[in-house]
User: Which sequence fits this backbone?
């Protein structure tokens, strides 16, 4: 069963706008991770946020985690056409021993 | 450069045939994983291994088998018992609690 559920399923924005993607999960976690996948390629790790962290930044990426609501958001600021990809959240559930469970992904299209 | 190599990139399987997908990493990672990706389904875990000579079933292990004889290698065999094997297969590795490093995938098609 899928632990993480992303929202929305698809997002289309203009270059330069910000993109916000959300992820909800069901059980307690050790950490939550976000990945990007370009069409037909493997996934690329973007950022990891631990359960005791609330916010993390990496370049144009900002991730927040609210463990009371069991939700996370990924913000991409000043988006570029090259950001067009699918984005997945993945959870390392407590007791799962670093075994990640992935959501179904969000398709982001950035129009030039 | 360190990374994970999956081969082949494309694979065609006839009905009733077993095929083996290769996954090799030179990252010195202990844990390795196999995921299956279908359109609209996200990634589903097939098998994983956290140490050499040991592996566990994931959520959809039926019709698949693996081995972990070397730390660097984690091949996946898709057997004839897997009735719907057409999918994109992804191998990943990690060192303890870090993020995963993924290979570029193998696209398997039944002909």
Assistant:
């Amino acid at each position: 069963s899928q632990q993480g559920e992303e929202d929305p399923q698809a997002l289309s924005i203009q270059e330069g706008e910000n993109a916000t993607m959300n992820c909800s999960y069901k059980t307690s976690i050790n950490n939550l991770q976000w990945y990007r996948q370009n069409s037909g390629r493997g996934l690329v790790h973007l950022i990891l946020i631990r359960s005791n962290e609330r916010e993390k930044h990496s370049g144009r990426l900002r991730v927040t985690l609210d463990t009371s609501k069991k939700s996370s958001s990924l913000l991409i600021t000043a988006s570029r056409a090259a950001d067009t990809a699918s984005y997945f959240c993945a959870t390392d559930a407590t007791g799962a021993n670093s075994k990640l469970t992935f959501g179904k992904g969000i398709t982001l299209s950035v129009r030039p | 450069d360190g990374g994970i190599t999956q081969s082949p990139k494309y694979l065609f399987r006839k009905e009733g045939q077993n095929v083996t997908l290769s996954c090799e990493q030179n990252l010195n990672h202990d844990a390795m994983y196999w995921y299956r990706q279908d359109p609209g389904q996200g990634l589903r875990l097939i098998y994983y291994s956290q140490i050499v000579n040991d592996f566990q079933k994931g959520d959809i292990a039926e019709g698949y088998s693996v081995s972990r004889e070397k730390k660097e290698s984690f091949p996946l065999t898709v057997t004839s018992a897997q009735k719907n094997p057409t999918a994109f297969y992804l191998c990943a590795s990690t060192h303890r609690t870090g993020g995963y490093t993924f290979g570029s995938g193998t696209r398997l098609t039944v002909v």
Observations:
- The mean pLDDT of chain B is 93.
- The two ends of chain B are 36 Å apart (CA to CA).
- Chain B is about 0% helix and 50% strand.
